[in-house]
């Protein structure tokens, strides 16, 4: 309910440091994963994706790591900037059209 | 860059009234999703279309919610009557259409029911 949402896990990092946001997914059959960034009052924005035949994928300042053994996904943001402050969600897809979203992590960048 | 369009962006209504939200997916995207997102939580799927057909509406409260995508392009989500607990962000997303295609979201409609 609403009280659970207000206790969203929060990661606070100093501007310029690297951030690591973690996600545990539920379905061992999931083979496609997306990280989304959601700023207050806006829709989720695609950041990076990875398929299960890979364990690492890099984008601009972002890297996603996939550990299928323990069903764990992480998002690394290099040189975190104030504009990176947002809630980050992982989403998994098991080869169907349906996505399952994680609970989200709030990233706060400290000046 | 192509985007998913939604309107209105904000809607305030009184309980028992009817509300409707509109979504225009990215051109060429066959799959369209409607989600509800409560503050601080991840999006929860309400209904999913493949072209004009409903693929999954198992989480749609069908006594008050309805969705259509008559021509397989844009879509409308309706709530009648609205209840206080319907206050949330309503998100539309689309993907090309084959399994595990990247899903892109619109800006959402923030609904407040008084």
Structural description of this entry:
Chain A is built from 1 helix and 10 strands. Chain A is mainly beta and 111 residues long. In chain A, strands 1, 3, 4, 8, 9 and 10 form a 6-stranded mixed β-sheet that branches. Chain A is globular, with a radius of gyration of 14 Å. Chain A starts with a helix and ends with a strand. Chain B has strands spanning 5-7, 10-13, 19-24, 31-37, 44-50, 53-56, 65-68, 75-79, 88-95, 104-105, 109-113. Chain B is globular and about 40 Å long. The model of chain B has no long low-confidence stretch (mean pLDDT 93). The A-B interface holds A 1-2, 4-8, 31-32, 34, 36, 41-46, 49, 51, 87, 89, 91, 93, 95-99, 101-104 and B 4, 6, 31, 33, 38-45, 48, 50, 55-56, 91, 93, 95, 99-100, 102-108, 110.
**Which structural class should the secondary elements of chain A be placed in?**
mainly beta
Helix content of chain B: under 10%
Shape of chain B: globular
Please, what is the average pLDDT of chain A? 90
Radius of gyration of chain B: 13 Å
Topology order of chain A in helix (H) and strand (E) letters: HEEEEEEEEEE
Q: Could you give a short account of the major beta sheet of chain B?
A: 7 strands, mixed
Q: Report the helical percentage of chain A.
A: under 10%
Q: What is the number of beta strands of chain A?
A: 10
Mean pLDDT of chain B: 93
State the end-to-end distance of chain A.
32 Å
Oligomer: heterodimer
Radius of gyration of chain A: 14 Å
Order of helices and strands of chain B: EEEEEEEEEEE
The helix count of chain A comes to 1
């Amino acid at each position: 309910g609403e009280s659970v949402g207000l206790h969203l896990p929060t990661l606070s990092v100093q501007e310029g440091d690297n951030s690591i946001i973690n996600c545990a997914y539920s379905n061992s059959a999931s083979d496609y994963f997306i990280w989304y960034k959601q700023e207050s009052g806006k829709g989720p924005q695609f950041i990076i994706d990875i398929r299960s035949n890979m364990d690492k994928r890099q984008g601009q300042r972002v890297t996603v790591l996939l550990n299928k053994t323990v069903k764990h996904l992480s998002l690394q943001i290099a040189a975190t900037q104030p504009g990176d402050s947002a809630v980050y969600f992982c989403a998994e897809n098991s080869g169907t059209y349906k996505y399952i979203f994680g609970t989200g992590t709030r990233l706060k960048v400290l000046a | 860059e192509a985007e998913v369009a939604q309107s209105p962006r904000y809607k305030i209504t009184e309980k028992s009234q009817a509300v409707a939200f509109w979504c225009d997916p990215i051109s060429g995207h066959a799959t369209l999703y409607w989600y509800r997102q409560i503050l601080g939580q991840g999006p929860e799927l309400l209904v999913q279309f493949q072209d004009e057909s409903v693929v999954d509406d198992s989480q749609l409260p069908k006594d008050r919610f309805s969705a259509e995508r008559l021509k397989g392009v844009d879509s409308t989500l309706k709530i009648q009557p609205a209840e206080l607990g319907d206050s949330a962000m309503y998100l539309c997303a689309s993907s090309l259409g084959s399994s595990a295609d990247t899903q892109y979201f619109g800006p959402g409609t923030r609904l407040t029911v008084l």
